[in-house]
Amino acid sequence: MKVLSKLKTSSLVVLLSVFLFSPVAVYAEGTTGSAALGSKGICGNLANLQANINNSIGERTTKLDSGRGTRENDLTAKRNNVDKQLGIDRAKWASERQEQFTKLEAKAKTDSQKAAVAAFEATIKAAIATREAAVDAAIAAYRAGVDSLIVTRQAAVNAAIATFKSSVSAAFAKAQADCSAGVDPKTVRINLQTSLKAARTQLKTDIQNATNTQGQLQTLMNTRKTAIQNALSAFKTTSQAAVATLKAAFGKTSPSSTSSAKP
Amino acid sequence: MKFLIPIVIVALIILGAVAFWKFGMGGNNPLPQLTTQNPSSNISKQAPVTGNPDDIGATINQAAQAEGNAITSNDESPVVNQNNSNAAAVGDSYNESSF
Question: Which residues in chain B are contacts of A164 at CB distance < 8 A?
Answer without folding.
Answer: 90-91
